[in-house]
Specification:
The chain has 124 residues and is mainly beta. Helix content is 3%, strand content 48%. The chain has one helix spanning 26-29; strands at residues 4-7, 10-13, 18-24, 33-39, 46-52, 57-59, 67-72, 77-82, 91-98, 113-114, 118-123. The strands form two sheets. Strands 2, 4, 5, 6, 9, 10 and 11 form a seven-stranded mixed sheet that branches. Strands 1-3-8-7 form a four-stranded antiparallel sheet. Strand 7 (67-72) and strand 8 form a beta hairpin.
Amino acid sequence: QVRLVESGGGSVQAGGSLRLSCGMSPYTYASPCMGWFRQAPGKGREKVATIYMDGTTSYANSVKGRFTISKDNAKNSLDLQMNSLKPEDTAMYSCAADPGPLWLGCAGADFDYWGQGTQVTVSS
């Protein structure tokens, strides 16, 4: 069963922090590659961060040093810690997973499974 449910979005002032979580079914959580994406109004979808089954992470240049992607095996959760938030981080954030097989990291991932999204709004 495929299930991805995001939580943790909200409104925050610039410089603040938010932590997003994506709860998954055990089947979905077994995916070798997972990631967070975002889409702002009038813009295309942007890959924010990914994490491969061996723990390798990758980040968009725009969030490097500010965001951290992680997995919580006890909760079957994919998390995104967002610090030093900027107004340009305002977007709908969605988690996604690729069930694989993926043997060379997340670079070739198609991300077949998606959550509904959670809104993040950063005010100046």
